[in-house]
Amino acid sequence: MSEAQTARPASLTLSGVGHDNQALNNCGPVTASVVLGYHGKKVTQAQAAAALKDGPNDVEVSTQEVAAYLERQGLRTVIRYGGTPELLRALIAAKLPVVVQQRLKDGDNTAHFRTVYGYGAQGLTSSDSLLGAKLTHSEAQFERLWNYYNGEYLLAYPANREADVKRLLGRDWDEAANWTRLRDEMQARTQKGGATAFDWWGLGQARLSLGQAPEAAQAFDRAVQIGVPLQYHWYRQGALLAWNRTGQAERTREIAQRILAQQPGIKEIEALLAQATAD
């Protein structure tokens, strides 16, 4: 056991983490409001939504968009992958709540942000804009929902905490090192029996982020072959991007047209379709 683990309390719930019930498709704006409130800046859900969404019919606010908005409000941010409950406990013990992107619940394909701010014997506690201010999952439940998005997390912090964040993230402070670790972990999983479509997707996303587009496209192909819900592409466009970069624009067109028939107006999908059509 490390010195940090020895000194860490067995359970901890941060004070000052707020909660709001979201309007339709507003988990991103609520999350931004909750994080800013914790760090001392009051922003309403409506104000955050006006900044983050193109309009009431905008169904998808990405992690990157939330991070950019938080930075415009004066915080610093990192987005990383392959997060673990142990890391969340360490960050919470350092008084840093963490935003995660997860499946809303088992069997539901909706992507959902939660702000994790507590841990203890019962598991991890989050402020959830749909399911409550003190939503607790066991670590097994939490990881199952989190693996759907390859352990993605967003950490926002004031500039004077950057040294603490670097220390706590270790090698994962470096973005390329984090992608390399995710690639290696997902590659190990996919070489064993029972790998999920989302393991293959994580491998594809890591390869793409490391500049390995042909290898990424192969991993995305396998993910789609196993079975990725069409809605998954609303939130993560890595496969479409990889196909566009590797001369497979027809695949992007086919998937993008199906998505937009199901849910018109997703600007990221429209942009990738336009690129594929121009190629």
Automatic annotation (TrEMBL):
This is Peptidase C39-like domain-containing protein. Residues 22-129 form the Peptidase C39-like domain. Pfam families: Peptidase_C39_2. InterPro entries: Peptidase_C39-like (IPR039564), TPR-like_helical_dom_sf (IPR011990).
